[in-house]
Amino acid sequence: MTIKKAFAILFLLIVLLLLGFWGYVQIRTYPAEVDYLALIMADDSIEISEERDYFIIIPDSIDPNAKPIIFYPGGLVAPEAYLYKMGMVASYLNVYIFIIKAPFNAAIFNTGAAGAIIDAYGIEQAWVGGHSLGGIAACRYLSANPGNIYGLYLFGSYCDQQISGFIGPVVSVMGLQDLVINRENYNQAKSLLPHETVILEVKGLNHSDFGNYGLQEGDGESSLSNKQVIEIISSAFKN
Q1: Which has fewest Cβ within 10 Å: 86, 111, 164, 170?
Q2: Most distant CA atoms of the chain, gap in Å
Q3: Main-chain dihedrals φ then ψ at residue 55, nearest 5 degrees
């Protein structure tokens, strides 16, 4: 076999592996619930703009003192699944919200996505955070780039980096009905957060509640309404 032919075969194998992985991701990704996506898209008080790498949620009224929110989605959850609840949060808080589109729907593959948004819009200070794997990605970004970050929020997530010296607000919201999170990792990771971290462990809240994509496999049953969850999410940015 010639070297040229060997490289051609290797290239073909790599392409097939990538296509197979892409197909697996598409099958395993939780899509947005159509009804809630339609609701937010039809809301005249909110504009949703789609860019190549993120969505921008723009409410009618913007609080000039509010810090923009950059959101990393959970692993294998479509970013559109967060538009309804985060859209309502944007409206309640009068703030811009950016929802990242992650490669292969796994934010861990592009932890620097927040930096691209901050640079593109000249943002001086922003909240960064996310849901599940997205929270871990956001924490990694903060650990490496604390300069433009106002605060960190973790929804059904934890931080795997040492950020105890971070001086901005840190908020962790965890549902007591969350049966997806690795509780051992979550509890151990609390020591990596600043002492002033606000930890909210909410009765009736599950892992899937932070988006609108149905019940995630293995999760507990939620006893909260969408309105209640939106109020809980909104409160995280008032600390």
Answers
A1: 164
A2: 67
A3: -105, 150
| Secondary structure of residue 47 in the 3-state scheme | strand
The owner of tokens 């899937």 is 208
DSSP states of 9-64: HHHHHHHHHHHHHHHHHHHHPBPPPHHHHHHHHT-TTEEEEE-SSEEEEEESS--T
Cα–Cα distance between 173 and 96 in angstroms, integer?
Answer: 21
Neighbours of 134 (CB within 10 A): 32
Antiparallel, parallel or unpaired: β 54-59 and 97-100: antiparallel
Query: Each residue of 59-88: pLDDT tens digit?
Result: 999 999 999 999 999 999 999 999 999 999
d(CA 73, CA 79): 6
How far is the C-alpha of 38 from the C-alpha of 169, rounded, in Å? 34
Tokens of 235: 């409160």
Q: CA–CA separation, 101 vs 197, rounded Å?
A: 27
Q: Which fold has domain 31-236?
A: Rossmann fold (3.40.50)
* Dihedral (CA of 37, 20, 133, 54) sign: negative
